[in-house]
Automatic annotation (TrEMBL):
<protein>
    <submittedName>
        <fullName>N-acetylmuramoyl-L-alanine amidase</fullName>
    </submittedName>
</protein>
<feature type="domain" description="SH3b">
    <location>
        <begin position="36"/>
        <end position="98"/>
    </location>
</feature>
<dbReference type="InterPro" id="IPR003646">
    <property type="entry name" value="SH3-like_bac-type"/>
</dbReference>
<dbReference type="InterPro" id="IPR050695">
    <property type="entry name" value="N-acetylmuramoyl_amidase_3"/>
</dbReference>
<dbReference type="GO" id="GO:0009253">
    <property type="term" value="P:peptidoglycan catabolic process"/>
</dbReference>
<dbReference type="GO" id="GO:0008745">
    <property type="term" value="F:N-acetylmuramoyl-L-alanine amidase activity"/>
</dbReference>
<dbReference type="Pfam" id="PF08239">
    <property type="entry name" value="SH3_3"/>
</dbReference>
<dbReference type="GO" id="GO:0030288">
    <property type="term" value="C:outer membrane-bounded periplasmic space"/>
</dbReference>
<dbReference type="InterPro" id="IPR002508">
    <property type="entry name" value="MurNAc-LAA_cat"/>
</dbReference>
<dbReference type="GO" id="GO:0071555">
    <property type="term" value="P:cell wall organization"/>
</dbReference>
<keyword id="KW-0378">Hydrolase</keyword>
<keyword id="KW-0961">Cell wall biogenesis/degradation</keyword>
<dbReference type="Pfam" id="PF01520">
    <property type="entry name" value="Amidase_3"/>
</dbReference>
Amino acid sequence: MWQLIILMRRYLKHLLYTLFVIGLSVILFNPLMTFAEMAVIDADDLLVRSGPGTSFESIGHVNTGEEFNVEATESPWLQITYNNTTGWVHEDYVTLSAELLLDESDEEIESDIPPNYSFPHETRISLPIVHVRQDASLTSEIIIKLNKNDHVTIMNEQGDWYQVKIDNTTGYIKKQVLDLTLTKPVGQSPLLNKTIVIDPGHGGIDVGAISLHDEYESQFAMQTGRVLERYLVRQGANVTFTREDDYYYSLTSRATLSNYLQADMFLSLHYNSEPAYPSANGINTYYREAGFKVLAETVHASLLTETSANDRGVASGNYSVLRNNRRPSLLLELGFLSNQTEEQQIKQTSYHEKLAEAITNGLIDYFEMR
Protein backbone atom coordinates (compact mmCIF):
# COMPACT_ATOMS: atom_id res chain seq x y z
CA MET A 1 0.00 0.00 0.00
CA TRP A 2 2.71 2.46 1.03
CA GLN A 3 4.70 1.62 -2.10
CA LEU A 4 1.66 2.47 -4.22
CA ILE A 5 1.25 5.83 -2.41
CA ILE A 6 4.92 6.69 -2.96
CA LEU A 7 4.67 5.82 -6.65
CA MET A 8 1.53 7.95 -7.00
CA ARG A 9 3.22 10.90 -5.27
CA ARG A 10 6.20 10.64 -7.61
CA TYR A 11 3.91 10.43 -10.63
CA LEU A 12 1.84 13.45 -9.55
CA LYS A 13 5.00 15.46 -8.78
CA HIS A 14 6.37 14.81 -12.25
CA LEU A 15 3.01 15.41 -13.94
CA LEU A 16 2.48 18.75 -12.18
CA TYR A 17 5.98 19.92 -13.06
CA THR A 18 5.51 18.94 -16.71
CA LEU A 19 2.16 20.74 -16.92
CA PHE A 20 3.71 23.83 -15.29
CA VAL A 21 6.57 23.92 -17.76
CA ILE A 22 4.28 23.43 -20.78
CA GLY A 23 1.84 26.07 -19.54
CA LEU A 24 4.58 28.58 -18.82
CA SER A 25 6.10 28.16 -22.26
CA VAL A 26 2.74 28.69 -23.95
CA ILE A 27 1.92 31.80 -21.92
CA LEU A 28 5.27 33.56 -21.88
CA PHE A 29 7.01 32.68 -25.12
CA ASN A 30 6.30 32.61 -28.83
CA PRO A 31 5.51 29.31 -30.61
CA LEU A 32 9.09 28.86 -31.77
CA MET A 33 10.22 28.40 -28.18
CA THR A 34 9.84 25.37 -25.92
CA PHE A 35 11.24 24.24 -22.63
CA ALA A 36 13.51 21.19 -22.48
CA GLU A 37 13.62 19.43 -19.13
CA MET A 38 17.05 19.21 -17.60
CA ALA A 39 18.20 16.72 -15.01
CA VAL A 40 20.70 18.29 -12.61
CA ILE A 41 22.51 15.58 -10.68
CA ASP A 42 22.34 15.89 -6.88
CA ALA A 43 24.67 13.04 -5.85
CA ASP A 44 28.22 11.90 -6.52
CA ASP A 45 28.93 8.57 -8.21
CA LEU A 46 25.27 8.13 -9.18
CA LEU A 47 24.95 5.03 -11.33
CA VAL A 48 23.72 5.35 -14.90
CA ARG A 49 21.93 2.21 -16.02
CA SER A 50 21.14 0.84 -19.44
CA GLY A 51 17.42 0.66 -18.65
CA PRO A 52 14.79 1.96 -16.21
CA GLY A 53 15.46 -0.26 -13.23
CA THR A 54 18.09 -1.65 -10.88
CA SER A 55 18.06 -4.94 -12.79
CA PHE A 56 19.71 -3.25 -15.76
CA GLU A 57 23.49 -3.12 -15.90
CA SER A 58 25.48 -0.04 -14.95
CA ILE A 59 27.07 1.75 -17.89
CA GLY A 60 28.80 4.49 -15.88
CA HIS A 61 28.26 7.14 -13.21
CA VAL A 62 27.62 10.89 -12.95
CA ASN A 63 28.37 13.48 -10.26
CA THR A 64 26.82 16.44 -8.45
CA GLY A 65 26.10 19.43 -10.66
CA GLU A 66 26.27 17.66 -14.02
CA GLU A 67 23.35 18.40 -16.33
CA PHE A 68 21.61 16.25 -18.91
CA ASN A 69 18.60 16.70 -21.19
CA VAL A 70 15.71 14.46 -20.15
CA GLU A 71 14.79 12.47 -23.25
CA ALA A 72 12.00 10.36 -21.73
CA THR A 73 10.56 9.29 -18.38
CA GLU A 74 9.42 5.99 -16.93
CA SER A 75 8.77 6.90 -13.31
CA PRO A 76 10.78 6.83 -11.16
CA TRP A 77 13.48 6.74 -13.88
CA LEU A 78 14.64 9.45 -16.27
CA GLN A 79 16.22 8.74 -19.65
CA ILE A 80 19.30 10.82 -20.50
CA THR A 81 21.96 10.82 -23.18
CA TYR A 82 25.17 9.57 -21.58
CA ASN A 83 28.43 9.21 -23.53
CA ASN A 84 26.51 9.20 -26.83
CA THR A 85 24.21 6.41 -25.72
CA THR A 86 20.96 6.08 -23.79
CA GLY A 87 21.18 5.90 -20.02
CA TRP A 88 18.77 6.00 -17.10
CA VAL A 89 19.06 7.66 -13.66
CA HIS A 90 16.74 7.56 -10.66
CA GLU A 91 14.64 10.72 -10.20
CA ASP A 92 15.25 10.77 -6.41
CA TYR A 93 18.83 11.87 -7.03
CA VAL A 94 18.25 14.68 -9.52
CA THR A 95 16.61 18.09 -9.63
CA LEU A 96 14.46 18.86 -12.64
CA SER A 97 14.90 22.27 -14.21
CA ALA A 98 14.15 23.75 -17.60
CA GLU A 99 16.22 25.27 -20.38
CA LEU A 100 14.69 27.53 -22.99
CA LEU A 101 15.44 26.12 -26.42
CA LEU A 102 14.40 26.79 -30.02
CA ASP A 103 12.45 24.37 -32.15
CA GLU A 104 15.09 23.45 -34.71
CA SER A 105 12.53 21.68 -36.91
CA ASP A 106 11.36 25.10 -38.08
CA GLU A 107 13.86 26.29 -40.66
CA GLU A 108 12.07 29.61 -41.24
CA ILE A 109 13.34 31.26 -38.06
CA GLU A 110 14.13 34.85 -38.94
CA SER A 111 16.76 37.05 -37.38
CA ASP A 112 15.43 39.78 -35.12
CA ILE A 113 18.35 42.04 -36.02
CA PRO A 114 16.99 45.42 -37.09
CA PRO A 115 18.29 47.16 -40.23
CA ASN A 116 21.80 48.61 -39.95
CA TYR A 117 22.37 46.68 -36.72
CA SER A 118 26.08 46.70 -35.93
CA PHE A 119 28.34 44.79 -33.59
CA PRO A 120 29.42 44.73 -30.88
CA HIS A 121 26.28 45.39 -28.83
CA GLU A 122 25.65 45.05 -25.12
CA THR A 123 22.56 43.38 -23.72
CA ARG A 124 21.29 41.70 -20.59
CA ILE A 125 19.56 38.39 -20.02
CA SER A 126 15.77 38.61 -19.62
CA LEU A 127 15.12 34.91 -18.91
CA PRO A 128 15.69 32.96 -15.68
CA ILE A 129 18.42 30.73 -17.20
CA VAL A 130 20.32 30.95 -20.49
CA HIS A 131 23.07 28.57 -21.51
CA VAL A 132 26.13 29.71 -23.43
CA ARG A 133 27.51 26.94 -25.60
CA GLN A 134 30.99 26.39 -26.89
CA ASP A 135 29.85 26.17 -30.52
CA ALA A 136 26.74 27.21 -32.45
CA SER A 137 24.86 23.98 -31.81
CA LEU A 138 22.37 22.68 -29.25
CA THR A 139 24.53 19.58 -28.85
CA SER A 140 27.63 21.64 -28.05
CA GLU A 141 29.02 21.77 -24.51
CA ILE A 142 27.49 24.31 -22.12
CA ILE A 143 30.36 26.50 -20.93
CA ILE A 144 28.51 29.19 -18.96
CA LYS A 145 25.09 29.40 -17.32
CA LEU A 146 23.70 32.96 -17.27
CA ASN A 147 20.96 34.23 -14.98
CA LYS A 148 18.41 37.00 -15.40
CA ASN A 149 19.94 40.51 -15.71
CA ASP A 150 23.46 39.17 -16.37
CA HIS A 151 25.25 41.29 -18.99
CA VAL A 152 26.68 39.93 -22.25
CA THR A 153 28.26 41.48 -25.32
CA ILE A 154 27.01 40.35 -28.75
CA MET A 155 30.10 40.12 -30.95
CA ASN A 156 28.69 38.70 -34.19
CA GLU A 157 26.08 36.38 -35.67
CA GLN A 158 26.33 32.89 -37.13
CA GLY A 159 23.15 31.53 -38.66
CA ASP A 160 20.53 31.26 -35.91
CA TRP A 161 23.12 32.03 -33.22
CA TYR A 162 24.83 35.04 -31.72
CA GLN A 163 28.49 34.89 -30.84
CA VAL A 164 28.73 36.46 -27.39
CA LYS A 165 31.45 37.45 -24.98
CA ILE A 166 31.21 37.28 -21.21
CA ASP A 167 34.31 38.70 -19.52
CA ASN A 168 37.09 36.93 -21.45
CA THR A 169 35.04 33.92 -22.57
CA THR A 170 33.46 33.61 -26.03
CA GLY A 171 30.51 31.33 -26.77
CA TYR A 172 27.16 31.10 -28.55
CA ILE A 173 23.53 31.77 -27.65
CA LYS A 174 20.43 31.11 -29.78
CA LYS A 175 19.20 34.36 -31.33
CA GLN A 176 15.63 34.18 -30.06
CA VAL A 177 16.83 33.71 -26.48
CA LEU A 178 18.16 37.29 -26.40
CA ASP A 179 15.75 40.19 -26.22
CA LEU A 180 17.20 42.75 -28.62
CA THR A 181 15.01 45.50 -27.18
CA LEU A 182 17.45 45.47 -24.26
CA THR A 183 20.52 46.00 -26.41
CA LYS A 184 22.56 49.11 -26.94
CA PRO A 185 25.78 49.79 -28.85
CA VAL A 186 28.93 49.25 -26.82
CA GLY A 187 29.90 52.55 -25.25
CA GLN A 188 26.40 54.03 -25.54
CA SER A 189 25.31 55.65 -22.31
CA PRO A 190 22.19 54.33 -20.56
CA LEU A 191 21.27 58.01 -20.06
CA LEU A 192 20.79 58.50 -23.81
CA ASN A 193 17.42 60.21 -24.44
CA LYS A 194 16.51 60.09 -20.75
CA THR A 195 14.49 63.07 -19.52
CA ILE A 196 16.09 64.44 -16.35
CA VAL A 197 14.59 67.32 -14.39
CA ILE A 198 17.05 69.33 -12.28
CA ASP A 199 15.53 71.29 -9.42
CA PRO A 200 17.96 73.87 -7.99
CA GLY A 201 16.52 74.34 -4.52
CA HIS A 202 14.87 77.59 -3.38
CA GLY A 203 15.31 80.75 -5.51
CA GLY A 204 14.24 84.39 -5.48
CA ILE A 205 12.86 85.53 -2.12
CA ASP A 206 13.57 82.06 -0.74
CA VAL A 207 17.35 82.08 -0.56
CA GLY A 208 17.56 78.90 1.50
CA ALA A 209 20.48 78.45 3.89
CA ILE A 210 23.00 81.27 4.30
CA SER A 211 26.70 80.46 4.45
CA LEU A 212 29.21 81.72 6.99
CA HIS A 213 30.15 84.44 4.51
CA ASP A 214 26.58 85.42 3.66
CA GLU A 215 26.23 83.55 0.38
CA TYR A 216 22.98 81.81 -0.52
CA GLU A 217 22.10 78.14 -0.88
CA SER A 218 19.91 78.98 -3.90
CA GLN A 219 22.96 80.31 -5.78
CA PHE A 220 25.13 77.28 -5.00
CA ALA A 221 22.32 74.91 -5.95
CA MET A 222 22.00 76.60 -9.34
CA GLN A 223 25.78 76.44 -9.84
CA THR A 224 25.76 72.70 -9.17
CA GLY A 225 22.76 72.28 -11.45
CA ARG A 226 24.48 73.98 -14.39
CA VAL A 227 27.59 71.84 -14.06
CA LEU A 228 25.43 68.72 -13.70
CA GLU A 229 23.53 69.69 -16.83
CA ARG A 230 26.78 69.72 -18.78
CA TYR A 231 27.70 66.21 -17.59
CA LEU A 232 24.24 64.80 -18.34
CA VAL A 233 24.02 66.33 -21.81
CA ARG A 234 27.36 64.70 -22.65
CA GLN A 235 25.66 61.37 -21.93
CA GLY A 236 22.80 62.18 -24.30
CA ALA A 237 20.21 63.10 -21.66
CA ASN A 238 17.51 65.72 -22.17
CA VAL A 239 17.72 68.15 -19.24
CA THR A 240 15.00 70.49 -17.99
CA PHE A 241 15.24 72.91 -15.04
CA THR A 242 12.44 73.73 -12.63
CA ARG A 243 13.81 77.26 -12.58
CA GLU A 244 16.14 78.96 -15.04
CA ASP A 245 16.56 82.16 -13.03
CA ASP A 246 16.73 83.48 -9.51
CA TYR A 247 12.99 83.39 -8.94
CA TYR A 248 10.92 81.41 -6.47
CA TYR A 249 8.62 78.77 -7.96
CA SER A 250 6.24 76.84 -5.74
CA LEU A 251 7.30 73.37 -4.64
CA THR A 252 4.12 71.81 -6.02
CA SER A 253 4.78 73.26 -9.48
CA ARG A 254 8.24 71.67 -9.51
CA ALA A 255 6.85 68.19 -8.88
CA THR A 256 4.04 68.86 -11.36
CA LEU A 257 6.60 69.65 -14.07
CA SER A 258 8.33 66.33 -13.40
CA ASN A 259 5.03 64.45 -13.63
CA TYR A 260 3.97 66.30 -16.77
CA LEU A 261 7.23 65.52 -18.58
CA GLN A 262 7.12 61.90 -17.33
CA ALA A 263 10.69 62.45 -16.27
CA ASP A 264 13.02 59.48 -16.05
CA MET A 265 14.67 61.25 -13.09
CA PHE A 266 14.02 64.25 -10.84
CA LEU A 267 16.91 65.66 -8.82
CA SER A 268 16.39 68.38 -6.21
CA LEU A 269 19.72 69.96 -5.27
CA HIS A 270 20.29 71.52 -1.85
CA TYR A 271 22.92 72.49 0.70
CA ASN A 272 22.52 72.04 4.42
CA SER A 273 23.07 74.31 7.42
CA GLU A 274 23.19 73.85 11.19
CA PRO A 275 24.59 77.12 12.65
CA ALA A 276 24.14 75.78 16.19
CA TYR A 277 26.37 72.81 15.31
CA PRO A 278 29.18 74.17 13.14
CA SER A 279 30.95 70.80 13.14
CA ALA A 280 28.04 69.13 11.29
CA ASN A 281 29.18 67.98 7.85
CA GLY A 282 28.54 65.48 5.08
CA ILE A 283 26.00 64.45 2.47
CA ASN A 284 22.40 63.24 2.89
CA THR A 285 20.29 61.59 0.19
CA TYR A 286 16.49 61.42 0.45
CA TYR A 287 13.89 59.45 -1.46
CA ARG A 288 10.15 59.07 -0.85
CA GLU A 289 8.77 55.79 -2.19
CA ALA A 290 10.34 52.49 -1.14
CA GLY A 291 10.83 51.58 -4.79
CA PHE A 292 13.38 54.40 -5.15
CA LYS A 293 15.56 53.30 -2.25
CA VAL A 294 18.01 51.47 -4.52
CA LEU A 295 18.24 54.59 -6.70
CA ALA A 296 19.05 56.70 -3.63
CA GLU A 297 21.63 54.23 -2.35
CA THR A 298 23.32 54.02 -5.75
CA VAL A 299 23.66 57.79 -6.23
CA HIS A 300 24.62 58.31 -2.58
CA ALA A 301 27.41 55.73 -2.82
CA SER A 302 28.76 57.43 -5.93
CA LEU A 303 28.75 60.82 -4.17
CA LEU A 304 30.70 59.46 -1.20
CA THR A 305 33.22 57.74 -3.45
CA GLU A 306 33.91 60.88 -5.48
CA THR A 307 33.93 63.45 -2.66
CA SER A 308 35.08 61.41 0.38
CA ALA A 309 32.38 63.31 2.29
CA ASN A 310 30.98 62.22 5.64
CA ASP A 311 28.18 59.69 5.16
CA ARG A 312 25.01 61.11 6.72
CA GLY A 313 22.95 58.31 5.25
CA VAL A 314 20.05 57.55 2.95
CA ALA A 315 16.50 58.02 4.22
CA SER A 316 12.89 58.42 3.15
CA GLY A 317 11.95 62.10 3.35
CA ASN A 318 8.51 63.70 3.47
CA TYR A 319 9.48 66.62 1.25
CA SER A 320 6.90 68.24 -1.04
CA VAL A 321 8.97 67.82 -4.22
CA LEU A 322 9.22 64.09 -3.43
CA ARG A 323 5.78 63.56 -1.91
CA ASN A 324 3.94 65.05 -4.90
CA ASN A 325 6.24 63.46 -7.45
CA ARG A 326 5.19 60.31 -9.30
CA ARG A 327 8.52 59.92 -11.06
CA PRO A 328 11.88 58.54 -9.81
CA SER A 329 13.09 61.36 -7.59
CA LEU A 330 15.78 62.30 -5.08
CA LEU A 331 16.55 65.24 -2.84
CA LEU A 332 20.28 65.70 -2.29
CA GLU A 333 21.84 67.66 0.58
CA LEU A 334 25.35 68.12 -0.77
CA GLY A 335 27.22 69.70 2.13
CA PHE A 336 27.01 72.18 5.02
CA LEU A 337 27.27 75.91 4.44
CA SER A 338 27.55 76.29 8.22
CA ASN A 339 30.74 74.22 8.32
CA GLN A 340 33.86 76.27 7.64
CA THR A 341 35.71 73.52 5.75
CA GLU A 342 32.75 72.50 3.64
CA GLU A 343 31.80 76.09 2.89
CA GLN A 344 35.26 76.61 1.36
CA GLN A 345 34.84 73.43 -0.69
CA ILE A 346 31.40 74.47 -1.94
CA LYS A 347 32.82 77.79 -3.13
CA GLN A 348 35.29 75.96 -5.38
CA THR A 349 34.34 75.07 -8.95
CA SER A 350 36.20 71.77 -8.64
CA TYR A 351 33.80 70.61 -5.93
CA HIS A 352 30.79 71.19 -8.17
CA GLU A 353 32.56 69.21 -10.89
CA LYS A 354 33.03 66.32 -8.46
CA LEU A 355 29.39 66.43 -7.43
CA ALA A 356 28.19 66.50 -11.03
CA GLU A 357 30.42 63.62 -12.05
CA ALA A 358 29.36 61.57 -9.02
CA ILE A 359 25.64 62.11 -9.60
CA THR A 360 26.01 61.29 -13.29
CA ASN A 361 27.96 58.10 -12.56
CA GLY A 362 25.40 57.10 -9.96
CA LEU A 363 22.57 57.51 -12.46
CA ILE A 364 24.49 55.49 -15.05
CA ASP A 365 25.00 52.69 -12.52
CA TYR A 366 21.33 52.76 -11.59
CA PHE A 367 20.00 52.61 -15.16
CA GLU A 368 22.46 49.86 -16.08
CA MET A 369 21.03 47.73 -13.27
CA ARG A 370 17.47 48.05 -14.53
